[in-house]
Each structure stands twice: as C-alpha cells, then as structure tokens.
Automatic annotation (TrEMBL):
The chain crosses the membrane at residues 33-50, 57-78, 84-102. SUPFAM superfamilies: Multidrug resistance efflux transporter EmrE. This is Guanidinium exporter. It comes from Spirosoma endophyticum. Belongs to the drug/metabolite transporter (DMT) superfamily. Small multidrug resistance (SMR) (TC 2.A.7.1) family. Gdx/SugE subfamily. It holds the Pfam family Multi_Drug_Res.
Length: 105
C-alpha cells in the first residue's frame, strides 16, 4: 500500500507544481487553492508512505515523479523547449528512480 500512496503523492506533486505555475505567483484564486489542496494531499500521502518505506527511498521517488512529471507537462502542455541536454537530464533522473526502486526490494 505504501508504494501506491507514494505514486499518488508524486502525481499530486505534479498537480501542485502545475497549479502553482498557473496561479501567477498566487495572484489567481482557483489555481492557488488547487496548489494548496494538492500540496497538502501530496504531503499527507508521502507521510503515509514513509510509515514503512525508508526516508531516502520515499523522498527520492516522490521528488523524481514530480520532476519527470513536471518536465513532461512543461513540454506537452506549456510548450517548454525540448533539447538533447534536457532529455538526457530527464533520462538520468528516471534511471536514478529505477535504480532506487530496484535497490529497495
């Protein structure tokens, strides 16, 4: 169950990061509220996952899901630039996540 909590916590990290971008520095009400709610839910699920998962594993996976998710959202939704260096950096993060998961079993 902890892994499920962790995956949803990571996905909610992407939600709050995107909503924060849309809030224009917390000047827009709805995106600001979504940011706060998603952030609290993400932290809550991370805390539940950390009941049984090691800190280093849980935090690394949580931030990694958020980083890769935000990277992809930025490209596909916000039209952020794509270049080889950014792609290699994202692949290195993904590789690190996979290695962290494999080392946890």
């Amino acid at each position: 169950m902890s892994w499920i909590f962790l995956v949803f916590a990571g996905l909610l990290e992407v939600v709050w990061a995107y909503s924060m971008k849309q809030s224009a520095g917390f000047t827009r009400t709805v995106p600001s509220l979504i940011t706060v709610v998603a952030l609290l839910a993400s932290f809550g699920l991370l805390a539940l996952a950390m009941r049984t998962l090691p800190l280093g594993t849980a935090y690394t996976i949580w931030t990694g899901i958020g980083a890769i998710g935000a990277f992809l959202l930025g490209i596909f939704v916000l039209g952020e630039p794509v270049n080889m260096v950014r792609i290699v950096a994202a692949l290195l993060i993904l590789t690190g996540l996979i290695l962290m998961i494999l080392s946890s079993h």
